Amino acid sequence: MPFLFGQNAPGGTHVDWASWVETIVALLVAVAIVAVVVICVRFVAGRARGRSAWIGDLERRVRAPGMILAFLIAVWIACAVTAPSALSWWPVLQRILLIAVVLVGAWLLSTVVTFGMERLMQYDSRRDSTSPEARRRQTQLTVLNRLAVVLISIIAIGAVLFSFPEVRAVGTSILASAGVVSIIAGLAAQSTLGNLIAGVQIAFTDAIRVGDVVVVEGEWGRIGEINLSYVVVYIWDERRLILPCTYFTSQPVESWTRRSEKILGTVYMDLDWRVPVDAVREKFMEIVEASDAWDRRSANVLVTGSESGHVTLRFKISAANSDDQWDLRCLVREQIMTWLQQEHPEALPVTRVALEGRPGS
């Protein structure tokens, strides 16, 4: 129904201008109160930022959803206590405000939960960021954060849908036949639910953790992300291997950092039978002792094979982590090879062929 300037609209409907002026004044007062509250909060946060940096970070994150939520609530209250609450279109506007408040409130709550989880992870990483226990806690907090955000979103959407009477009636009918619906939903979403359950299982059974070094599908890399439905493995050459969570609960995975990052490495060399093993062993120890990558736990040289016209030397070395172990293996292989070329070329592998003359030649 359009409102015209004047005392009476066509058809004799009277426009109560005093009520509308009251509504406008109430809206202006509500907006002014919200503005004052926002200014006070920002002032207090700015003063406290010098002593606690996290307060400024929290204020920056909740600023947008907090301002929007406060404005929506102020408008709702101002309209509910003035003229619009008596008009025919007020229920529609009230429903719109309710939906907006629920969604923005979910946004604000998710932001606060995420901030709290990130603060916990930062605090824990400052104390210890490399041990298996620290990585386990980081993984669990990450999965809990994502799970909390998903639950908040589902609850918010459910609250919005059930604000409509028609949806409530349908919901009652569905709940009455929950057995059939659960069977159908379980069959339709078997893969999705399986990944979701597997994601929670990974986080709390400590099978893998963020930062673990693993060999998956023949690829060496680190666990970079553990989500509710998939895991991202950061391959050493900067590729990304994305696998469903169910893979890690149903397939064998080689972990190099299950209980400790310390690891043993081996280098194998096929050399001639004339190789001076004692001299090689002495040169090997000289190389590893001069390297910072060796953690001095274990180092030895053994002859592990003598087939096919050559002998196999195994160089075993230990390191504090897989990166140092890789560097140390490459260093040993390169320097032993160079030393043999320069000092003992007779030790390099050769192929011997015996030529026998024919009878009477």
Can you summarize this structure?
By secondary structure, the protein is an alpha+beta fold. It has helices at 17-49, 53-80, 90-127, 132-161, 165-176, 178-188, 190-205, 245-250, 277-289, 322-343, and strands at residues 213-216, 219-226, 230-235, 240-244, 254-255, 263-271, 294-305, 311-319.
Overall description:
This protein is α+β, with helices and mostly antiparallel strands and 361 residues long. 58% of the residues lie in helices and 15% in strands. It is built from 10 helices and 8 strands. A 5-stranded antiparallel sheet has the order 4-3-2-1-5. The chain has a 3-stranded antiparallel sheet with strand order 6-8-7, covered by helices on one side. The relative contact order is 0.06. The N terminus is likely disordered.
Topology:
Blueprint: H1 17-49, H2 53-80, H3 90-127, H4 132-161, H5 165-176, H6 178-188, H7 190-205, E1 213-216, E2 219-226, E3 230-235, E4 240-244, H8 245-250, E5 254-255, E6 263-271, H9 277-289, E7 294-305, E8 311-319, H10 322-343
Antiparallel strand pairs: 1-2, 1-5, 2-3, 3-4, 6-8, 7-8
Helix pairs in contact: 1-2, 2-3, 3-4, 4-7, 9-10
